[in-house]
Structures are given as structure tokens and as C-alpha cells.
């Protein structure tokens, strides 16, 4: 190790130049990495709704409506004029209104009331159409220009456009708030005005390189763009702190170069163990079938690895070239690094054990019964988008189109299917050949443009106008009923798609992912802990501590009756475990060293006194990241991740401070017997 450190320090200038050059190139390249805002694109190819979408795109020109516009107080003719204006907007396709569902030359008073009310009600006209992927921002801006301030726009395309506009800006806002807070925390916890600059430079370079290397992936999700850089900064900042604190200790008795060599050697095991648990925890995300996990997991794994390299290779030469600035900017430490609280904490060990024992089972059960949201969630009511969506729903009710593709050729069977589907409670109306034209007229005698709406070479298309939410028990039950009825007519020879169908598939997939990823995370971290501590009992004690804090965190939404975005739940259950287990490692490592020279009670008190400050600094940074993401993001998924991360970090800190020491004391004899070469002190 000493030889490696000498080689690194010998090439100070070339190493610093290389890393800075890579950071500059990456900072430029990152702007050319496409960002994907569609959650649907991350469903696996074998998902039924994905297959259905692919078939429909191959067979038909039209796409599923993802946008609604309501025009108030218009006549039939005025509504038609608006339809033509909407059709002329670049990126807008398949504008559907009343004239597509019936012959508007027929007086609406004698027409089918359900069909009319779907598109025209109380002199309000409701248009549905598709906005092409990648054109959401320009198209929705143009739509607003056409409809003005008094009319309403809502839908998935608008939500995507808002995300595109806000995610980048909100990430910058979060960073603008977070970085000063991190600097303040570091200034309060260090003895030099310049040390925080070194910390942030080392991790900042790794963050930039991580962002730039995404060019080799091709694209990243908006979740990775918003969350990964900030999480990487917060999680890996500890590595730089470990190294420079060791360097500071050795500087008291050694020359700078020699002090850095010893600091690198001394801090390497702690940094490697910390990075490994986080690395393998995040790696588990890449095994998700729902590919948003793989996208975020790959970004975080790459980020942790690059942070490790920057701290162990880039930071030492950078520190040696600027240590005089550290010396010149020394100040008194504003906060003491040791606190005499160990004896008070240990007085709480029995209440802590009892309290956790009473709460752990209810928390475990509650976190599995939370009401989940699988999509993007709802926009805030105080925004125009939120108000418009509510106004459209008040006037026309909920609207979630569902598209069926059934084999072409048997109009009688198709008509029977449509009639039965329309009997379902939440199916308001349908658009099909048998309804719009009728079975009496053969398709060969119908205009080609009209026929193309309903038939391809192989399939007949039926659009169901449903009145459910895009997700939830009612929506998912309707999906199952539609599939069951269609299956009775066409066996498995059909396809169904739509937003509620996609979210139904997403629910099935991510629930399986949750079990797999949690098992892989626990096994991976347990293996790293097993190797680190060479013990059978330490991994169990540490994982029990952090996993319990995860259950407590995820149980809160159940008891507060707040729906939780499932993607946030799935990600945070991994991130919290992988990121905060470092606190338990730091405390346990110091405890095992102290335990070799003193009794368990004395060792744990001393450890708490010495390590509470370091753990508190790390926890305050990570929890700040979470709460800032929660406060600055308008995106429900990112906001949910932030809230869970902020609260989860604090809970992990509390568990490591009160519950873990109690476990270490209770199981001291078992730990001694199940740890290789424990050499625990045997006196009193």
C-alpha cells in the first residue's frame, strides 16, 4: 500500500491535470446526454402493455391520446374551428372530438347522450389528442397560445413538458441551497477555512466525470438527472473527510508527504468498506426488471466508484500541493469533536430495546400496506396545470382511454364484445367501427381515411373511454375485467394498452422487483460486512439496526394516510440501507478497537463520545440533501425520494446512536465467540 501511495504522490502534477481535464470535458459533454422523461419507456420489453404498444405502432398510424383540452362556451362550429387549429400544431396528432364519434349533422338532442357528453357538454368542448414524444414542451406552449388563458389543458404530455422545464432548474435550485449548507456544516466541523474547498473539489470532480460518462450510456432518466449527482455528493463526501482527518492527525508528528502516505494507508480500509456497502447496495438496483432502477443504479454505482478513485488518487496530490493554504487558514474548531454523552445514552439502552421491540412488527406490517402511486402522481392544485386538470374533471369527469386490438374480420363478435364492455360501470363510451359505422356496412364500402381509424391489415381497434383514475384499485380492477371479457371472446389473441394498463403492468413488475432487490441488497451488504469485520454476528446486528430504521421510515406514510410514490419507496428502501449503514460501520469499527482494551460498557461509552460528532456531520449532510430535494422539487417522484431520504437518515442516526450500542452490549459474548480473532478484553 505504501508503494502505491508513493507512486500516486510522486505523480502529483500529472494526476491533478488528468482529473481536472476529465472534469472539464465531462462538464461540456453532459449537455449532450439526452434525458428521458417517460416512465413508460422503462417498462421491460416483455410487459404486455409494451408489446401492445409496439403492435399498435406497427399496425396503426394513430397513437393513444395523452392530452385533453377543454374550450369553454363554444358552439359546434366554433369547436370545429378550434379542432383545426389544434391539428395544425407541430407534434399534435389524432385530434379526436364529437365529429369522430358520430355524424354531427345529426341533431345532438337525438344522438346518444353518453357519446355527446364525452365530447360536448354545457357548451364546453373537450378534445383529446396525442402529443409526440420529444415535442411536449414546444407543443404544449403552442396549445396554450391557441386556447388562451380562459381554457384548459391537461394530460400526461403536459406533465412531461412541466418535468422537462422544471427538473433541470430545480436541480440547480437544490444545489444552490445545498452547497452553502454543506459548506457551513463542514466549516463548523473542521479547523481550516480551506478544507471544505478540498472536500467539495474532490467530490465535485467525481460528480462531473460521472455526469459526462453518461454519454456512453446513451441517455439517462430525469430521475437520475435530478437525484444521482446530489446523492453522490452527499454519500461520498465522508470519504474525503476520512482521508483529510487522518492526514491532519499525522501532520502533528510527520512531514506532509509522509503524513499523507500514512493517512492513505490508514483511511483506505474504512473508505473501502464504506464505499463497498454503498456500491453493492446501489448495484442491486440494476437488477430491477423495471429499467428505471437500472438507470439510477448504474449512475449511482458509477458515481461511488469515481468518488472513491477521486478521493484515493486525486485528493492526496491536490492536498499536498495546497496544504500551506490549510495551514494559513486554520481557525479554532467551532464545535467540539467529542461529547461526554455516552453514559447518558447507555442509560437509555433498555428503553431503546423495548421501544424498538414494540414498534418493529407494526412498522414492518405498515410499510407493506401503504397506499402506493405507481405513476407520476398529481400536480399541485395551486398550479395552472393542477387547476386545469381539476376543471376538466369537474366538467367531463375522469377520462382514461384504453385501447383494444382484436383480430380483424368478425364484426359480429366485435360488436358483441363492445356491447358487453360498455356495460361495465366505468366504461362511459367507446369508439369502434361497429359503433361509428355499424355492422350493416362492409368495411370495403367505407372511405379509406375512416376505415384506417379502425382497421389495420391484421387488427381491429377499439377505444374505450373509461371514467377511472389512471391507477388505483378501481382502475386496476377495470383493467382485469376488460382483459377477462376480451379473453372470453378472443382467448389470448388480443392486445390492450393505455395509461391505466401500463401502470397496472408497472405495479406487477415493481412489486416483484422490490422483493428481489431488497434480498440482493441485504445479501450484498451482509457479505461486505462479513469480510470487513470477519464476524458472523456483526452483519446481523448492523443490518438489523439499519433495516429497522428503513421500516420505521416507510411506515410513516401508512400511519399519516399519505399515498407514497412506489418508485420513491423502492429506491429509498435501497438507498437508505446502502448509504446509512456507513454510520453503523464507523461506530462498530471504533467499538471493536476499544473493546480489545476495555470492557464492553466502557468501550461503547468511549466510542459514542468519540464518534457521535463524525456520524452527526455525515447524517446532517445526507438528511439536508433529502429535505432540500423535498422542498425544491415539484415532481412528485423526486419530492417523495427527498422526503423519505431526509426522514430516513435521521431515523438511521437515532437507531445507530441508541439501538446499536444496546445490541452490541447485549450480544457482546456472542459477538466475541463469532468474530475471528476478536481478542476482546476479558477484565471488568
Condensed summary:
The chain is of the alpha+beta class and 684 residues long. It has helices at 2-10, 12-29, 48-59, 76-87, 98-101, 113-119, 136-147, 156-189, 195-213, 222-251, 256-283, 291-328, 342-347, 349-367, 384-396, 411-422, 433-436, 448-454, 473-490, 499-533, 537-559, 566-595, 600-632, 636-666, 668-673; strands at 35-36, 67-71, 92-96, 120-121, 124-131, 152-155, 220-221, 372-373, 400-407, 427-431, 459-466, 495-498, 564-565. Strands 2, 3, 4, 5 and 6 form a five-stranded antiparallel beta sheet that branches. The chain has a four-stranded antiparallel beta sheet with strand order 10-11-9-12.
Return Rg in Å: 30 Å
CATH homologous superfamily label of the largest domain: Multidrug efflux transporter AcrB transmembrane domain
Helix content: 55-70%
Low-confidence stretches are: none
CATH class identity of the largest domain? Mainly Alpha
Topology (SSEs and partners):
Blueprint: H1 2-10, H2 12-29, E1 35-36, H3 48-59, E2 67-71, H4 76-87, E3 92-96, H5 98-101, H6 113-119, E4 120-121, E5 124-131, H7 136-147, E6 152-155, H8 156-189, H9 195-213, E7 220-221, H10 222-251, H11 256-283, H12 291-328, H13 342-347, H14 349-367, E8 372-373, H15 384-396, E9 400-407, H16 411-422, E10 427-431, H17 433-436, H18 448-454, E11 459-466, H19 473-490, E12 495-498, H20 499-533, H21 537-559, E13 564-565, H22 566-595, H23 600-632, H24 636-666, H25 668-673
Parallel strand pairs: 1-7, 8-13
Antiparallel strand pairs: 2-5, 2-6, 3-5, 4-5, 9-11, 9-12, 10-11
Helix pairs in contact: 1-11, 1-12, 2-9, 2-12, 7-8, 8-10, 8-23, 9-10, 9-12, 10-11, 10-12, 10-23, 11-12, 11-20, 11-22, 14-21, 14-24, 16-19, 20-21, 20-22, 21-22, 21-24, 22-23, 22-24, 23-24
Amino acid at each position: 500500500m505504501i508503494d502505491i501511495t508513493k507512486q500516486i504522490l510522486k505523480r502529483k502534477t500529472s494526476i491533478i491535470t488528468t482529473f481536472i481535464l476529465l472534469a472539464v470535458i465531462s462538464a461540456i459533454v453532459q449537455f449532450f446526454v439526452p434525458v428521458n422523461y417517460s416512465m413508460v419507456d422503462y417498462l421491460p420489453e416483455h410487459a404486455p402493455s409494451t408489446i401492445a404498444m409496439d403492435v399498435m405502432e406497427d399496425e396503426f398510424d394513430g397513437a393513444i391520446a395523452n392530452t385533453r383540452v377543454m374550450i369553454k362556451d363554444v358552439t359546434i362550429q366554433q369547436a370545429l374551428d378550434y379542432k383545426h387549429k389544434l391539428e395544425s400544431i407541430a407534434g399534435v396528432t389524432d385530434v379526436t372530438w364529437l365529429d369522430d364519434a358520430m355524424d354531427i349533422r345529426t341533431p345532438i338532442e337525438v344522438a346518444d347522450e353518453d357519446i355527446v357528453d364525452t365530447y360536448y357538454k354545457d357548451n364546453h368542448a373537450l378534445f383529446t389528442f396525442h402529443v409526440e414524444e420529444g415535442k411536449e414542451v414546444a407543443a404544449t406552449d403552442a396549445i396554450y397560445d391557441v386556447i388562451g388563458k380562459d381554457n384548459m389543458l391537461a394530460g400526461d404530455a403536459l406533465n412531461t413538458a412541466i418535468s422537462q422545464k422544471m427538473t433541470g432548474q430545480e436541480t440547480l435550485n437544490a444545489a444552490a441551497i445545498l452547497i452553502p449548507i454543506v459548506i457551513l456544516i463542514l466549516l463548523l466541523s473542521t479547523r481550516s477555512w480551506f478544507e471544505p474547498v478540498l472536500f467539495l473539489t474532490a467530490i465535485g470532480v467525481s460528480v462531473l466525470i460521472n455526469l459526462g460518462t453518461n454519454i456512453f450510456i446513451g441517455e439517462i432518466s430525469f430521475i437520475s438527472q435530478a437525484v444521482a449527482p446530489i446523492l453522490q455528493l452527499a454519500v461520498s463526501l465522508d470519504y474525503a473527510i476520512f482521508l483529510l482527518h487522518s492526514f491532519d492527525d499525522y501532520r502533528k508528528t510527520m512531514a506532509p508527504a509522509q503524513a499523507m502516505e500514512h493517512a492513505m494507508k490508514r483511511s483506505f480500509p474504512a473508505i473501502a468498506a464504506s464505499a463497498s456497502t454503498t456500491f453493492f447496495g446501489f448495484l442491486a438496483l440494476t437488477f430491477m426488471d423495471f429499467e428505471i432502477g437500472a438507470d439510477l443504479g448504474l449512475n449511482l454505482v458509477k458515481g461511488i466508484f469515481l468518488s472513491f478513485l477521486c478521493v484515493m488518487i486525486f485528493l492526496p496530490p491536490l492536498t499536498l500541493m495546497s496544504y500551506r493554504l490549510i495551514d494559513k487558514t486554520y481557525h479554532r474548531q467551532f464545535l467540539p469533536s467529542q461529547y461526554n454523552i455516552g453514559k447518558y445514552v447507555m442509560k437509555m439502552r433498555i428503553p431503546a430495546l423495548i421501544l424498538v421491540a414494540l414498534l418493529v412488527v407494526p412498522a414492518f406490517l405498515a410499510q407493506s400496506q401503504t397506499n402506493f402511486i405507481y405513476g407520476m402522481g398529481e400536480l399541485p392544485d395551486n398550479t395552472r396545470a393542477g387547476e386545469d386538470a381539476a376543471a376538466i374533471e369537474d366538467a367531463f369527469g375522469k377520462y382514461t382511454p384504453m385501447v383494444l386490438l382484436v383480430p380483424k374480420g368478425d364484426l359480429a363478435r366485435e360488436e358483441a364484445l363492445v356491447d358487453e364492455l360498455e356495460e361495465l360501470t366505468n366504461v362511459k363510451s367507446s369508439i369502434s367501427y361497429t359503433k361509428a359505422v355499424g355492422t350493416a356496412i362492409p368495411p370495403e364500402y367505407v372511405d379509406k381515411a375512416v376505415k384506417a381509424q379502425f382497421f389495420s391489415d391484421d387488427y381491429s381497434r377499439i377505444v374505450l373511454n373509461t371514467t377511472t383514475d389512471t391507477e388505483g384499485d378501481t382502475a386496476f380492477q377495470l383493467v382485469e375485467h376488460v382483459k377477462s371479457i376480451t379473453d372470453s371472446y378472443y382467448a389470448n389473441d388480443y392486445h390492450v394498452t393505455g395509461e391505466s394498463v401500463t401502470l397496472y403492468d408497472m405495479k406487477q413488475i415493481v412489486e416483484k422487483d422490490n422483493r428481489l432487490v431488497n434480498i440482493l441488497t441485504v445479501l450484498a451488504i451482509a457479505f461486505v460486512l462479513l469480510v470487513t469485520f470477519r464476524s458472523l454476528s456483526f452483519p446481523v446486528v448492523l443490518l438489523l439496526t439499519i433495516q429497522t430504521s428503513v421500516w420505521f421510515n416507510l411506515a410513516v406514510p401508512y400511519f399519516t394516510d399519505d399515498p407514497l410514490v412506489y418508485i420513491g419507496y423502492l429506491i429509498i428502501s435501497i438507498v437508505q440501507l446502502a448509504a446509512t449503514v456507513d454510520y453503523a460501520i464507523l461506530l462498530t469499527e471504533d467499538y471493536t478497537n476499544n473493546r480489545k482494551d476495555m470492557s464492553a460498557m466502557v468501550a461503547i461509552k468511549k466510542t459514542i463520545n468519540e464518534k457521535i460528532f463524525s456520524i452527526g456531520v455525515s447524517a446532517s449532510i445526507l438528511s439536508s440533501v433529502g429535505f432540500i430535494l423535498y422542498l425544491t422539487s415539484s415532481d412528485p417522484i423526486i419530492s417523495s425520494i427527498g422526503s423519505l431520504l431526509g426522514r430516513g437518515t435521521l431515523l438511521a442516526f437515532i437507531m445507530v446512536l441508541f439501538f446499536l450500542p444496546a445490541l452490541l452490549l447485549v450480544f457482546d459474548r456472542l459477538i466475541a465467540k463469532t468474530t475471528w480473532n476478536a481478542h476482546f478484553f476479558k477484565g471488568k
